[in-house]
Design a protein that fits this description.
This protein is mainly β. It contains no helices and eight strands.
Length: about 90
């Protein structure tokens, strides 16, 4: 027999705020140097010409210009090729 009653575990009680991820500037919009274009976790979108990654995979503009999104084939480590979106500033 147990000396202590069953404590039970509570699930789904932690409520953290959203991270506000996603595309901040869309294709055809003007962008300034250093501005955030996409906030993401992981490499869902790739950084092309005129853009760069920060430490948390956020894509920033490296120069003033216009945002452009395009599809590109990327080879994975396993050798498989998949389509990924590339973000560029022209």
């Amino acid at each position: 027999m147990s000396k202590v009653k069953a404590g039970g575990s509570s699930k789904n009680v932690h409520d953290s705020p959203g991270q506000r991820l996603g595309v901040k500037l869309y294709g055809g919009q003007k962008v300034k140097n250093g501005q955030v274009i996409v906030r993401q976790t992981g490499l869902t979108k790739r950084a092309g010409d005129g853009t760069y990654f920060s430490r948390n995979f956020t894509i920033h503009a490296a120069k003033d210009g216009v945002v452009k999104f395009s599809k590109r084939r990327v080879r994975l480590f396993t050798g498989k090729t998949v389509r990924r979106t590339e973000v560029t500033v022209e």
